[in-house]
Every structure is written in structure tokens, then in C-alpha cells.
Amino acid sequence: MALSNSSLIKIATLVQPFRRLIGIVADLRLAIVLLLAIALCSISGTVIEQGESLKFYQANYPEAPALFGFLSWKVLLVLGLNHVYSTWWFLALLVLFGTSLTACTFTRQFPALKAARNWKFYDKPRQFEKLALSAELNTGSLSTLIPLLERKGYKVFQEENSLYARKGIIGRIGPIVVHASMLIILAGSIWGVMTGFLAQEMVPSGDSFQVKNILEAGPLAQGQIPQDWSVRVNRFWIEYTPKGDIDQFYSDLSVINKAGEELKRKTIYVNEPLRYQGVTLYQTNWSIAAVKVQLNNSPIFTLPMAKLDTQGKGNIWGTWIPTKPDLSEGGALLARDLQGTMLVYDATGKLVGAVRPGMTTEVNGVQVKIHDLIGSTGLQIKADPGVPIVYTGFGLLMVGVVMSYVSHAQVWALEAGDRFYLGGRTNRAQVSMEKEMMAILEQLEHC
């Protein structure tokens, strides 16, 4: 059924604003502004520590004096600058940028590719005057020109006394591939934020744990958090340099199922994580969890150790060793690493002695033997299902950039009486095109 004039007018009235909106979204200037905004937000997420505790931000971004006069911990938390990449406004920028790329691809790149794939013959001499490279000869023919062009990689089309040739059509496909790869990268980033999670655990050597301490998680991350397997820290140890500094710390980890069966085992260290079912466990920190102590001939028991506040002057862990059951008397034990000397003080703060694992000292008339220090491994657990998508996008981006550097060259020729017209143009590599045309003209003149 044919539409009435009034219906056509209504449709045109609705389509016109939509076309204007598409034109605005596809504007290159808007895409550049969005890209700069995303870059600035990414820089802020790199400069400002992400995913730290409230105490960390209160200590490093106080209200008086505020950084730059305005950036306090309250402003930082309100704006979401402590987790930039998962904020609604950063995701909105990504979506808007992706929309702009998509609109530009369909309104500009696909039409440009379609125009490049079509061929149009020049049948009038004056048409060659518009070309950047053109020549008029009193010799030459299409039959002579065709093999010359084909040897140089041109695809030739002929219609009566007119000729059209082209090569490098892949150069027109390159920008589309670049846009598609950027859309894939954006999609991977958004998918990673929506489905990924970040957790941290501090686990004593010999203990097992399930991922519970979630710092950040996307709305769809529940399926990524491990439920049917856990991790056992078989052993944690530190290697020191000859000067006593920490060289590297290691964690021997086992992935176990609910029945305690080992599914995977690996020793991890900094920059060498354990990966299992899309979850990655990184070695990031360490601590002293406890100390094994024996008083006179008592059974060996374990005392927890806590990290002391040293006002940024190093790491020290301490515990109270009771020498009476009611804890009224005892001594303090301090340690700064897993291999160094431990210091023992009495209740008055007087230094009683210095011991190492396996040594004994006396506190309040009680023989205190230090059997062992138990270290804790600090693990960062992360799942980001968007990473494979992002890597695929970056790989495709490199291919698209290389394709975009291929020149798209076009050549036209016309036999008109005793005159022969030849011309061409290219979107880049103008000098190479000129040399190529000069070589063809020389060969035509000598034929």
C-alpha cells in the first residue's frame, strides 16, 4: 500500500533530526575530544593509587592542605578517582567514543570503500585536466598500457577506448579494520570491568584460603569468583642479598578442590603469577604472621604477631610473650624480617636479649625458646575476562595500521583519435606515484 504525502512528510520529519544526530556523533572533532578525555581520565587512574583503603586516602590526601587546593580524600572518593576505570562516567566515555567510531565507520569509511571498489571510465579529454598527474601523448595505446599496469600490480578494467586501473584497495580497508579493532578494545575493556574482580589476601604459610576479601567487583563478576576450589600456601620464604636486603620472595601454592585434592601447583614470585581457570594470583607483599615459642619445658605454642606503626621508618612486627598464665608478666618480641635477629624486651622496656630461631633467652626467670617465625604471603587475586578480547583488538589494530599505509592508486586512460590521454592519482605516496607514471610514460613513448 502506497504511503500518503502526509505520512512521507512525517517520516522525513523524524529522519532529519536522526541524521543530524548521526552527523554530530560521527564528527572527527568529537572523537578527538572524547579520546583526549579518556586519555586524561586514564592518566588520573595511573597517578592516583587505585583500590586502596579509606585510611590510605585519608593519610595521603588530607583535607588541609588539599592537593592542588581542592583534591582531598573526600573529593577523590565522591568522584570515584580511587577506582577510575569502573566509574559510570568513565564507562560512559567509552560507550560514547565507541558510538562515535561506529557512526564514523558507517557514514564515512564504508562509503569510501564502496567508492574505491567502483570503477568509472573517463571518456572525455577534459576529465584528465582535474587529475594531479596527467599527460597527453601522440603515441600509445590501451593494448600497450594494459600489460605495463598489470606488471605493476594494477587491476585493469576496459570499456571500448577507455581504461580504468587500480591497486592498493587494501589501503581503503585498513581504516575500517582500525575502527573495528578499537571497538573490540573498548568492548573488551567494558566487559572486563563488568565481569572482573580484584581481591587481596594475606595468608600464613601452611594455611588454605578461599577468595573472600574482594576489593572491586563488576556487577556480573559473581561467576568469576572461585567457589569450587581454594588455594593452599604450602610454603612462603624470602631470599636475601649478602647485605641483608630482600632479593625476592616466593610462595609455593597449590590449587585444591573441596576434597583437598591438588589440581595445580606452582611457585610464584614477583612477575611470575599462577593462573587457573581465568583467575590470576600475583605475589605482591609479605608479612610476619606468628612466632612459635616454648616456655621452659612447656609445649610449643604459636603467638600471633602484628605490624607496628613506625611512622614510615621501616617494617617491624611485635608480640607479647606471657611468662604468667594471667598475662601480667612477660616480654615483648620484635622482628623486622624472617631471617634477622629478634629483640626481646621486658615489661619495663629494658632489652633482655637478642635471639634467632632456635635460640633461648631468659625473661622474668623463664627460659623462652624461639622455635620459628611464620611468614605470611600477600597475594593479589584478579580475574579480567576482557583481557583476551583487548589483546585480540590490539593485534587487529596493528594489522589495520599496516594496511592503512598501503597506497590506493588509480589510473585512467583514453584513446581519442590520434591522441592518447593518461592520468592517475593516489591518496598517499605521491612521489612514488609520480615516478611510476613517468616510467610508464617513457615505456609508452618508446613503443
Index terms:
single chain; 447 residues; alpha+beta; TATA-Binding Protein; 3 domains; elongated
Q: Could you describe the 3D structure shown?
A:
The model has no long low-confidence stretch (mean pLDDT 87). The protein is elongated and about 120 Å long. It contains 9 helices and 21 strands. Strands 4, 6, 10, 11, 12, 18 and 19 form a 7-stranded antiparallel beta sheet that branches. A 5-stranded antiparallel beta sheet has the order 1-21-20-3-2, with helices on one face. Strands 13-14-15-16-17 form a 5-stranded antiparallel beta sheet, with no helix packed on it. With 447 residues, the chain is of the alpha+beta class. The chain has 3 domains: 5-102, no CATH class; 119-168 and 407-445, TATA-Binding Protein, CATH 3.30.310.80; 223-379, no CATH class. It is 35% helix and 33% strand. Belongs to the Ccs1/CcsB family. Keywords: Cytochrome c-type biogenesis, Membrane, Thylakoid, Transmembrane, Transmembrane helix. One of its GO terms (cellular component) is plasma membrane-derived thylakoid membrane. It is found in: Cellular thylakoid membrane; Membrane. It is a multi-pass membrane protein.
Write a compact overview of the structure shown:
This is Cytochrome c biogenesis protein CcsB. Residues 28-300, 371-437 form the ResB-like domain. The protein is α+β, with helices and mostly antiparallel strands and 447 residues long.
- The helix tally amounts to 9
Instruction: Please tell me the overall pLDDT.
Output: 87
Give the helix/strand class: alpha+beta
Cα-based radius of gyration, to the nearest Å? 36 Å
Distance between the termini: 63 Å
Following the backbone from N to C, one meets helices and strands in this order, namely: HHHHHEHEEHEEEEEEEEEEEEEEEEHEEH
How many strands in all? 21
Q: What is the percent of helical residues?
A: 25-40%
What characteristic shape results from the CA principal axes?
A: elongated
- Give the total of domains: 3
| Main beta-sheet strand count, sense and barrel state | 7 strands, antiparallel
Strand content: 25-35%
**Uncertain stretches:** none
